[in-house]
Design goal:
The structure is a single chain. By secondary structure, the chain is α/β, with parallel strands linked by helices. The protein has one domain: Rossmann fold (3-Layer(aba) Sandwich). 34% of the residues lie in helices and 29% in strands. It contains six helices and eight strands. The protein has helices spanning 7-19, 42-45, 49-62, 79-89, 131-142, 159-166, and strands at 21-29, 35-40, 70-74, 92-96, 109-111, 119-127, 146-155, 171-176. It has a six-stranded mixed β-sheet, sandwiched between helices. The chain has a two-stranded antiparallel sheet with strand order 1-2. α6 (159-166) links the parallel β7 (146-155) and β8. The two termini are 20 Å apart.
Length: 185
């Protein structure tokens, strides 16, 4: 049996159910390519400061005791969460572009500088099959940073846990499909 949700995780779940979960009459295609009639829009659910701050608190409770000096993930799903966590944890934040910038320094990773001395926390808003958070993982490993852990606000299935286990990286979900009473994808 899963552990009960912390108070901040329960508030996050309630916020997502109220402001970010749409139960549609017909399935839509998700970013992963999977289909679902349950559409989760965490960006809309966390569009207010207090709700975003609560999400950061829920993440920090979920990973309590983990040592990291930067937090980030693939833009756009991770940006707001990373910034909120960085403020609460007094660490740097970063954002991984989907493709390197084509002008200037041509960076793939923006924000705080991360390198082989960095211990980073990867974050994402919603994970279905893990494609976006794994893209961020590959970018971070490309600069030889250590991925201390990966965490998502909502995990819609069991795929990402297995992917990170293959890499020996701890993986956490603050809220799962089960907590939202939706079908796994």
């Amino acid at each position: 049996m899963d552990a009960p949700l912390t108070p901040s995780a329960a508030r996050l779940r309630d916020t997502i159910e109220r402001d970010g979960l749409d139960r549609l009459p017909a399935p839509v295609v998700l970013a992963s390519g999977a289909e679902s009639s349950d559409y989760i829009d965490v960006k809309r659910a966390l569009a207010s400061g207090p709700e975003l701050d609560n999400a950061a608190e829920a993440v920090l409770h979920t990973i309590e005791g983990l040592d990291f000096d930067a937090v980030g993930g693939l833009t756009l799903g991770a940006d707001h969460i990373a910034a909120a966590i960085a403020m609460r944890a007094s660490v740097g934040w970063f954002s991984v572009r989907k493709q390197p910038k084509v002008h200037g320094a041509k960076r793939l990773i923006e924000g705080t500088r991360i390198d082989k001395r960095s211990r980073v926390l990867l974050v994402d808003d919603v994970v279905t099959k893990g494609g976006s958070i794994m893209q961020a993982f590959d970018a971070v490993r490309g600069v030889e940073a250590t991925v201390a852990a990966a965490v998502t606000l909502v995990d819609r299935g069991e795929h990402a846990a297995a992917l990170f286990a293959e890499h020996g990286v701890p993986y956490f979900a603050v809220v799962t499909y089960d907590d939202l009473d939706i079908e796994p994808v």
